[in-house]
Recover the amino acids of this structure.
């Protein structure tokens, strides 16, 4: 099944492009389409290690082999067996050479048309990077692009497909146009939260060099097309991020699509009828947008040195759980400073609950979503246990004040685990609160909603 | 005569800025967008004309902003120049501590508020709660969902 998804981009965005950018578009879209074939070779929902490792290789064998050859656990290699049954590696750019070449050609064609110097340089660098594996150079050139509303990203970025080690990165692609107003609003909110939250020396990156871009997309493909992320933090390489900065990308087309097809139907199926009448659709939609924006910002505020290594495969679970509660916790400053109102905070909390249920649905289709579901279940179960949520013919009248208070408590627990917690502490918390059963009691109500 | 018209509290500097913005919109931006719309019409078929759609949308934003600014300027009330006081007033810059974080911001009228630039509206929960408080005072900011405590460390 294809990973390519296309969206209709409203005319008002097209008018932001220059004549040459409009001519570049077909080449860029073609390049992103080409990513699908590579991704399909990487994807395998049956194996925990997808197609990154031989099917018969077990974790300990791979770890042992990686001690002799660290490239075995490189984010950009495929592990195979040679004729002597030993584990060997092939780098992505060699493994997928034939499929990468037409992508590279399309990028070079677009670069020839491009009149923006920094964008042209990026397209040329990216075209070469895909062929020779110099992804860092492409990331750095991307971060330096300025004075254009058009954007394209292609490359291996997310690790979620590798459930065995959370190391290998899956290919993705995207072409979009910046939404100026929402980007500006996003940057304002980032500035408010960063100045309020203060600085922490053990953060991976100084927040001041994290940019925000909200964009509508023509096409997404690869892992991004499969997961339909609503926001993403790029690039993925920590060293590049620390030195050159990074961007939080909000995918407006995916946000709107998921709201219509997933979040709003969940709201209508999960919450009790009388409660629902208090909220208009636009109010939940607005709350949903803030949740996503804050999720992106908060993930950066809570990116701590060494947490991935310390927490290993438990990291994405706690990262997700912390993002859920810290996003709401940080919204407090927006309310106190008059940036959003009380009702918007309520809508955010309702939308956040809907996102927890969305993972129950999405895991039916994509097993890589399990880590999110686990993270969400930790939060949901905690809120149920302390009485902030009550279930009677659906979720009925959440106690928002209690829910907020308990989310603040949880945020401080998860933040500490990410900052300095041990693997055992994380594991113990998981043993105490992890269970999918409470969320799955809604299975019959959620059965009518299709996964995305 | 309507005595319930909302007054907008502004500093003199803030009012000057809004007047300048309004003048710029009326004298420069408004004619520019009219010319852009005229040009876009010449491209033909309006139903498929993205330049026309974008220009019309921008025009409506410009007109809405002009209307808002004219209303604010008409009903502006100048806040007195802030002299150093030992309690918080509109125009004060405060250093506060909350949840272990220390931050500095100014309390301004709602039209000048720009939280990203550390200018907090006097009508926001925290702005409203801090007005009148003195150095060393612990102020509770309470909304139906959120409770927060702010300790005033200094007032400038």
């Amino acid at each position: 099944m294809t990973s390519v998804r296309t969206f209709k981009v409203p005319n008002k965005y097209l008018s932001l492009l220059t004549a040459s950018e409009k001519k570049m578009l077909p080449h860029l879209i073609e390049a992103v389409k080409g990513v699908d074939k590579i991704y399909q070779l990487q994807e395998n929902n049956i194996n925990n290690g997808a197609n990154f490792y031989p099917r018969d290789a077990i974790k300990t064998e791979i770890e042992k082999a990686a001690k002799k050859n660290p490239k075995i656990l490189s984010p950009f290699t495929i592990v195979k067996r040679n004729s002597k049954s030993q584990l060997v590696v092939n780098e992505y750019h060699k493994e997928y050479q034939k499929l990468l070449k037409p992508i590279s050609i399309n990028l070079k064609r677009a670069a020839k048309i491009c009149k923006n110097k920094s964008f042209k340089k990026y397209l040329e660098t990216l075209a070469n990077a895909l062929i020779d594996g110099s992804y860092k150079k492409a990331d750095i050139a991307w971060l330096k692009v300025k004075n254009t509303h058009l954007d394209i990203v292609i490359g291996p970025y997310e690790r979620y497909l590798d459930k065995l080690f959370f190391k290998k990165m899956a290919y993705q692609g995207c072409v979009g146009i910046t939404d100026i107003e929402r980007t500006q609003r996003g940057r304002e909110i980032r500035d408010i939260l960063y100045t309020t939250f203060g600085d922490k020396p053990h953060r991976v990156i100084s927040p001041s060099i994290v940019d925000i871009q909200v964009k509508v997309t023509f096409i997404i493909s690869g892992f991004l097309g499969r997961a339909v992320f609503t926001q993403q933090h790029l690039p993925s390489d920590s060293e590049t991020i620390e030195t050159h900065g990074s961007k939080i990308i909000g995918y407006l087309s995916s946000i709107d699509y998921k709201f219509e097809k997933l979040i709003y139907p969940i709201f209508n199926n999960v919450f009790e009828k009388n409660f629902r009448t208090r909220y208009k659709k636009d109010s939940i939609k607005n709350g949903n947008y803030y949740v996503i924006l804050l999720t992106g910002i908060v993930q950066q505020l809570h990116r701590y040195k060494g947490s991935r290594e310390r927490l290993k495969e438990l990291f994405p679970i706690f990262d997700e759980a912390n993002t859920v509660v810290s996003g709401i916790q940080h919204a407090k400053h927006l309310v106190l400073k008059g940036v959003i109102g009380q009702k918007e905070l309520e809508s955010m909390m309702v939308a956040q609950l809907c996102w927890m249920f969305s993972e129950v649905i999405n895991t039916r289709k994509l097993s890589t979503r399990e880590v999110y579901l686990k993270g969400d279940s930790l939060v949901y179960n905690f809120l149920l246990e302390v009485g902030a949520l009550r279930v009677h013919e659906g979720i009925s009248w959440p106690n928002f004040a209690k829910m907020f208070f308990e989310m603040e408590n949880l945020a401080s627990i998860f933040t500490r685990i990410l900052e300095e917690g041990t693997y055992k502490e994380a594991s113990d918390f998981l043993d105490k609160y992890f269970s999918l059963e409470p969320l799955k009691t809604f299975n019959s109500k959620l059965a009518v909603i299709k996964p995305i | 005569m309507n005595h319930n018209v909302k007054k907008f509290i502004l500093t003199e500097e803030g009012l000057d800025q809004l007047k300048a913005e309004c003048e710029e919109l009326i004298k420069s931006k408004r004619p520019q967008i009219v010319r852009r719309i005229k040009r876009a019409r010449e491209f033909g078929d309006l139903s498929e004309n993205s330049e026309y759609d974008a220009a019309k949308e921008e025009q409506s934003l410009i007109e809405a902003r002009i209307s808002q600014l004219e209303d604010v300027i008409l009903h502006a009330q100048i806040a007195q120049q802030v002299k150093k006081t030992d309690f918080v007033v509109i125009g004060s810059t405060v250093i506060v501590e909350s949840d272990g974080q220390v931050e500095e911001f100014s309390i301004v009228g709602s039209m000048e508020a720009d939280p990203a630039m550390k200018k907090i509206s006097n009508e926001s929960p925290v702005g409203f709660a801090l007005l009148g408080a003195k150095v060393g005072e612990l102020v509770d900011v309470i909304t139906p969902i959120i409770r927060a405590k702010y300790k005033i460390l200094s007032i400038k």
User: Anything to note?
Assistant: The interface with chain B takes residues 11-12, 14-16, 187-189, 191-192, 195-198, 332, 335-339, 342, 345-346, 400-401, 404-405 of chain A (CB under 8 Å).
